[in-house]
């Protein structure tokens, strides 16, 4: 499925409005105009307090639906998602209890409370524990006040093991369970504003790759190309870049440690991304330095057809494994099978605030897709000793099917960014 600039603007305009951007923010420069890279994130509107309040309200609904009374969330991505509070990790317990019946209540080392007050939204209660006291006793008190002294307490998936064990040891009357149904249930489906951040992040990454590929020259190192992409990403207003591989090293899905410089006929594979307001992109492009061989063209075309098949299969109600299967069948039917022999990994992963997150497009995952879910779509064929090809775009499931984020879809090995 080819996504033209016109269709990209049409499908993305609502999301762009959520950022305070107009569709023309993504328009190509006029013919003959200098293509100077400009900051594309300067006018982006950040998440507002009401966005976080809506997330916590959804968590409350899920707590009721799943039969949990509360969830404890420590420092990390989940804490940022629900509260906007970033907190460094140490041996001291810090976090927030989200419950069905009470506003958020924080648990904090007493000597850190002033710093916590700078970060925690005004009006939310902070309960402290001194160095000689048991922090799990404070959490127990919070649960008692929430009417959950003998209920079910979920723990965020990124809560550290010693904290999970501590809760089970010191709260024997409470059933401590996996809280992923709450955190993943919220984060797995993105809002229009979140999708807009990801649209822009993916666009920036593709533009940066395009700039980097202009610098390809015989004898350059992967570090040279990586530097050019990172520089372009920074000029476009973000940070990040891409990890290049040349020649036979492209057959290693996550790269080889063997250094290579670029020579004519080499396959060039770059995988990387950037972030906008904490939301990630993940893009891979494969090109050839010089004239592609017939085999390079054939393999590239198979991978592109596999990606298109996956995009077509990704629609509400389809299972995650069926999308993986749609892409894998194209590869196998072309003679590059069975299973993982050449297409060596799952089709894709969820993406959002983390580069890899729930859910995953892989055999055995019968989870059904919903509008607002976002994934990487990255089929590949890897032939050790020769070359590898991977084409990756992030996609969002919509009511009508799915679309790739950021536009600039690959059309051919000679047009890795389509018509831009």
What does this structure look like?
With 420 residues, the chain is α+β, with helices and mostly antiparallel strands. It has 2 domains: 49-187, 3-Layer(aba) Sandwich (Creatine Amidinohydrolase, Chain A, domain 1); 190-404, Creatine Amidinohydrolase. Helices cover 35% and strands 20% of the residues. It has a 6-stranded mixed β-sheet with strand order 4-3-2-1-5-6, with helices on both faces. α4 (113-119) links the parallel β3 (105-109) and β4. The protein is elongated, with a radius of gyration of 24 Å. The two termini are 14 Å apart. Residues 1-34 have low confidence and may be disordered.
Q: What would a concise description of this structure say?
A:
The protein is an alpha+beta fold. It is built from eleven helices and 17 strands.
- Taking all Cα atoms into account, the compactness measure Rg is 24 Å
How would you classify the helix and strand content by structural class? alpha+beta
Can you give the helix content as a percent range?
Answer: 25-40%
Total number of beta strands:
17
List keywords for this structure.
420 residues, alpha+beta, Creatine Amidinohydrolase, Chain A, domain 1, Creatine Amidinohydrolase, 2 domains, six-stranded mixed beta sheet, four-stranded antiparallel beta sheet, disordered N terminus
Detail the topology: elements first, then pairings.
Elements: H1 5-18, H2 49-66, E1 70-74, H3 77-83, E2 95-99, E3 105-109, H4 113-119, E4 125-129, H5 135-145, E5 152-155, H6 161-170, E6 175-178, H7 180-187, H8 192-213, H9 222-235, E7 240-246, E8 267-276, E9 279-280, E10 283-288, H10 294-313, H11 320-333, E11 348-350, E12 357-361, E13 374-377, E14 380-383, E15 387-390, E16 393-398, E17 401-404
Parallel strand pairs: 1-5, 3-4, 5-6
Antiparallel strand pairs: 1-2, 2-3, 7-8, 8-9, 8-10, 11-12, 13-16, 14-15, 16-17
Helix pairs in contact: 1-8, 2-7, 8-9, 10-11
């Amino acid at each position: 499925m080819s996504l033209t600039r016109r269709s990209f603007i049409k499908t993305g305009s609502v999301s762009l409005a959520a950022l305070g951007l107009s569709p023309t923010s993504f328009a190509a420069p006029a013919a003959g105009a200098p293509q100077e890279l400009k900051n594309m994130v300067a006018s982006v509107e950040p998440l507002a307090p009401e966005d976080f309040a809506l997330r916590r309200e959804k968590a409350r609904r899920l707590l009721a639906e799943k039969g949990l009374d509360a969830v404890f969330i420590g420092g990390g991505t989940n804490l940022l998602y629900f509260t906007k509070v970033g907190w460094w990790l140490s041996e001291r317990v810090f976090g927030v209890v989200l419950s069905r019946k009470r506003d958020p209540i924080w648990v904090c080392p007493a000597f850190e409370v002033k710093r916590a007050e700078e970060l925690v939204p005004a009006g939310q209660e902070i309960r402290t524990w001194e160095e000689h006291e048991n922090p799990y006793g404070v959490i127990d008190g919070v649960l008692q006040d929430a009417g959950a002294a003998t209920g079910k307490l979920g723990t965020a998936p990124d809560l550290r093991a010693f904290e999970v064990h501590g809760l089970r040891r010191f709260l024997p009357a409470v059933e401590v369970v996996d809280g992923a149904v709450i955190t993943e249930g919220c984060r797995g489906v993105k809002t229009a504003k979140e999708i807009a951040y990801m649209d822009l992040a993916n666009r920036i990454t593709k533009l940066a790759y395009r700039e980097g590929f202009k610098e390809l020259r015989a004898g350059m190192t992967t570090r040279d190309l990586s530097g050019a992409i990172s520089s372009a990403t920074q000029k476009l207003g973000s940070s990040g870049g891409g990890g290049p591989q040349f020649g036979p090293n492209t057959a290693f899905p996550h790269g080889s440690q063997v250094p290579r410089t670029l020579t004519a006929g080499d396959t060039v594979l770059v995988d990387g991304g950037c972030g906008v307001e904490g939301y990630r992109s993940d893009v891979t492009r494969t090109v050839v330095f010089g004239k592609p061989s017939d085999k390079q063209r054939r393999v590239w075309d198979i991978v592109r057809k596999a990606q298109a098949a996956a995009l077509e299969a990704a629609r509400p109600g389809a299972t995650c494994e069926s999308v993986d299967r749609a892409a894998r069948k194209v590869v196998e039917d072309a003679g590059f099978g069975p299973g993982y022999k050449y297409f060596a990994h799952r089709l894709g992963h969820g993406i959002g605030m983390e580069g890899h997150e729930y859910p995953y497009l892989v055999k055995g995952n019968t989870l059904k897709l919903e509008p607002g879910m976002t994934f990487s779509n990255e089929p590949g064929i890897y032939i050790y000793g020769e070359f590898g090809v991977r084409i990756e775009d992030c996609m969002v499931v919509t009511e009508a099917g799915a679309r790739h984020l950021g536009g600039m879809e690959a059309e051919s090995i000679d047009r890795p960014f389509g018509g831009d």
